[in-house]
Amino acid sequence: MNAGGVFFLGLRYLARHRVKTILLVSAFVLAMGLPVSISRVVGHVEAQLRSRAEQTGLVLGAAGSALELTFNALYFTKPGIASLPYSEVEEIHDTGLGQAIPLYVRYAAGDYRIVGTNLDYLDFRKFQFAEGRSLLRLGECVIGARVARENGIQIGDSVISSPESLFDLAGVYPLKMKVVGILESTGTPDDRGIFVDLRTAWIIEGLGHGHEEASELSDDQILERKGDTVRLNASIVEYNEITEENLNSFHFHEEEGKLPLTAILVLPYDEKSQAIFKGRYANKDTRILVTPADEMEELFDTVFRVQRVVLSLLIAVGVAAAALGLIVFLLSNRLRAAEFRHLKNLGASPATMKALIGFEAGFVLLCSGLLTIAVLVLVDWIVPIVLIRLI
Amino acid sequence: MILCEDLQFRYEGDPFTLRVNRFSSEAKETLALIGPSGCGKTTFLNLLAGILQPESGKIRFMGESLSELDLPERQQFRREKIGMIPQNFELLDYLTVRENLMVPFWIGKSSREDRVEAAKRIEELAERTGISPLLEKYPTHVSQGERQRAALCRGLIRSPQWILADEPTGNLDTENQEKIVSLLLEEADRIGAGVIMITHEPTLQPRFDRVVDLLELREEVLRP
Q: Which structural domain, as residue segments, surrounds residue B54?
């Protein structure tokens, strides 16, 4: 047997019949790669979601969907969930059982969610600053690495909050926020977050505002004076940026304790504290206290059940594709019977013929295997990047 | 020389039996093998080439008993000493004409020197048979006559001692038949090879040293 000759003849056959070869390889790659790729994608999603969930002790929110609350607090999605008052943060602090970190995740700037919180959140997530500093006053923001990278934002630039509705003229005004810090990449949803002080988030909602001093306004701008209360008409200039000059004009018309939060991260000091917290909120109709890890567990139980069904179907399809590939290969060899007979007549030994057929089959399988591995490497590389965008 | 004695062969499940009591051909002899269709000419040629193994009898090829060799030995013998030229050209459609001429080297053991030598020989043969411009083309892109010339070159590429040609002119027009037979006999003479060629063309038979009709030689070939 001439190994070089077998290699040459086999390669030339496959190259000359490249369409058939590509179809065979594609069929095998699909048959092998699809089920494995799906498993790996689900694995990545699971790892990503579980890891963040396990790092976050408990999440308190208004009664509603536990999963939506978890996603709002951990992944900054589901901005429409019901709110709870800020006073509950103080209540948790007062118990002495754990730390409470408020979150108000309702608004966005373009595709990026504005996360109203306090400095405890930045410490809790162990953020490192790539550039700049932390939040010091109203109107400042710290942005995640992807926000900076994707938009070319640098320290000193501004980010403007998006209006909730283009046609809601009486609604939320855009607020221009100054970027004072850019975070190091964490590979988590924090990379896509714009972090502001809670009060800045409330100002975006219109719960707090700054405007011209009422005492300096002309009479035609004042609708009514009643004791300390002055009602102004729409000609009053409201500030859409918080600066050194107008900072002191910003104020809230509501007690801070009544201002809204979408979630509170509850970080019990120990297991006993955690149990007490769970017991305390177990019977409250208006609140839910969720353990994110448990929510993810429940979510993945459902996902895995669906995945098992999908994988079973895909494996069945894969086996059918592989069987079809085998039939195509066998039929192709049958069609080549005259060619093989002639090679034998020219003096090719049975070993040479077997090696030739084996090489062609092996080459197709090897290419399929290598391509499948390449697809899996690509999946492993690209899925975490895509996940950060999606979650 | 080739010598066959008491040769008997039968395809499994087929009542036809080929029996040859005695057949011989001298070295460098050119021989036209004739006879009506189905009389066993191709079978006989395949027996001589060692492609088929007789049920009984002996085939001696230049003193070597072909019928006593095992399959790999017969294949090696065929690769090295016999040039086969089939009726239907049997060129591989996925190889160029040049690559087709190299096939006898790819399917058996051959050294690098052999292949370098073969590459030179391809140029010479292609030049003499007029297929030089076709060497890089695929068989499907050349004419019938050109394909047969390529098949002829492939049969000659290893400079065999015998050329066994199974009606190589069967698919060609008269002009190309003449050309192919002339080329075959010239090249055989050049390398000192014997030729046994099956043909139905009476006009070609005078070109050979001897004509053997399998049916007329009743004592050599019998039907049951």
A: 2-213
